[in-house]
Design a protein that fits this description.
single chain, alpha/beta, seven-stranded mixed beta sheet, 36% helix
Length: 211
């Protein structure tokens, strides 16, 4: 096992758990994830961080993918503890292994920052949504202010190596709209306890435009 593989298998899951499992992040998850209903697909489900927030009375089935095997184990364990008959498997958002129109809800939290091709991933999520289905998103990304945005550009080359390909400068709302969605924003702000270059958040509900 090379150094990179060792880091991804042993260190990265701890880094992700530390950042994505914080109280501030969990409070935002609680504003988005309970809106999921019907057949639900979660992109980047590794770690199972969203699972406590799903409404068991509203979700009829749960599927998810993540490229990190170590994080997947945690998600699968949490699903078993909840008694879910869940389809959680290894996979990448650029090639979602489910049929067209398979889901009522797609959930994407803190994932678009780290995928290789966000345009393709957004198209894939749109593909697996049923007509009238909803994409629930909670992401961090490009700051709207010049100062933090400048620091994001400076820090990103090192940051993405340490944080699992996490990009700081990716647009959130504009990229979702360009992919053919209409957005109902829920909120956007900086985290008070985080440096501004790492703390810009946007969350909301998106539907396929024209659906």
């Amino acid at each position: 096992m090379g150094l990179g593989e060792w880091y991804d298998a042993t260190v990265l899951p701890k880094v992700v758990s530390l950042g994505c499992g914080s109280q501030d992040v969990d409070e935002l998850r609680a504003e988005v994830v309970p809106l999921a209903k019907g057949a639900v697909f979660e992109l980047g489900c590794g770690g199972g961080f969203n699972q406590n927030h799903y409404d068991p009375q509203a979700v009829t089935s749960f599927s998810g993918i993540d490229p990190n095997a170590s994080l997947l184990e945690a998600a699968q364990k949490r699903a078993r503890e909840k008694g879910w008959d869940a389809d959680i498997r290894e996979g990448k958002g650029e090639d979602i292994p489910f049929h067209d129109g398979a889901f009522d809800t797609v959930v994407c939290t803190y994932t678009l920052c780290s995928v290789d091709d966000p345009v393709r991933v957004l198209a894939e999520m749109r593909r697996v949504l049923k007509p009238g289905g909803r994409l629930l998103f909670l992401e961090h990304g490009k700051a709207p202010d010049a100062g933090p945005a400048r620091w994001q550009r400076r820090i990103e080359p090192v940051w993405k190596r340490l944080a699992g390909n996490c990009h700081l400068t990716r647009e959130i709302g504009p990229s979702i709209r360009r992919a053919g969605y209409e957005i109902e924003p829920i909120g956007q702000r900086y985290f008070e306890k985080a440096p501004r270059w790492a703390g810009w958040m946007e969350w909301g509900v998106a539907r396929r435009a024209g659906a």
